[in-house]
User: What shape does this take?
Amino acid sequence: MSLIQEARAREVTLARSAAAQPAAWSVTEQPWAWAVAALLLIMPVIANGFFLIEIFGTTLILGTIALSLMFLAGYGGMVSLMQLTIAGFAGYMVAVFGVSGNANISLGWPWWLATPMALVLAVLFGTLGGALAVRTEGIYTIMITLAIGAAFYYFTNQNWAIFNGHTGINTVATPHFLGVDWRMDIAFYYLTLAVAALCYFAVLYLSRAPFGLALQGVRDNPRRMAALGFNVNAHRIAAYAVAALVAGLAGVLQVWNYRQISPGSVAVERCIDILIVAVVGGITRPVGPYIGAFIFVILRTFALDFLVKVGLDGNRFRLLIGLGFLAIVFWSSDGVIGLYERWRRRGRPVETRPRPGGHGHG
Assistant: This one.
């Protein structure tokens, strides 16, 4: 075995031990995990169409977009604010290549051709944006990805030939196959649940695969990984490509959900909402974005109605979201997941460890 191979083997071993530390527990090991999974599966039986799509369906879509951000930030140490932009780009491409009410813009491809094309272009878009972003670090990465999101928003708002300007593209066709209209409430909910579960377990698998472990090594010590022969920038760009695929899948579901897409869907404030969702839920574990998305959707839906009923501007629901964000971040740097872990540790007996060179007490 060469010295490089030995160094790689040692690095993977170290990465495995380091990766095990932030993920102190697995969701599947928690007593509530299987109950939540069962509840999601039987949700169409106990929830009406509004809760099924507007609450739980929207939660799964936003959570999947935030999951792509969590993958980059949690495992790669790269905070990207263009994940919603990538999702919106995929949605626009579905509308442009597929069938819509804007026949002068849409090409009229069937969904099984338009959707893969949209995902390929979304991955290419995210990869190119990532190749630009990896040349910077820290706040500069955030600003570059935010600039990409803002540029795409203004471009869609002003371009009429492809994106139909501020009007957007309406009446986007949704898939029909196996004799099922997959935009019907129950069918679309299960489709969204399946895509969210696929993305969740894919990210969970990648976090423990050699690529994910190497990515976490790049996050923790890029110079050491480069000295061991790893291509640091290649790993980071590949992470952007994976995250773009996850965000693109969610973007396709989003345009199918609303049957339309407009520049408002990729506005700058919505890009920042995805960061809030990821941070509130917890940026270190794949389940965190879905928890944060559920909290965000509940506040956005019911706080808006509450504010209108008491005679206040409904747009002030963002103030409530901001206050909740500050409160959670103040008490826990890892969002709701961190609060849950703190609660679990409370009341546990302190383990008695033997002193170095001494003997433990029975």
User: Anything to note?
Assistant: The chain has 15 helices and two strands. The two ends are 44 Å apart (CA to CA). Confidence is low (pLDDT under 50) at residues 1-7, 10-25, 352-362.
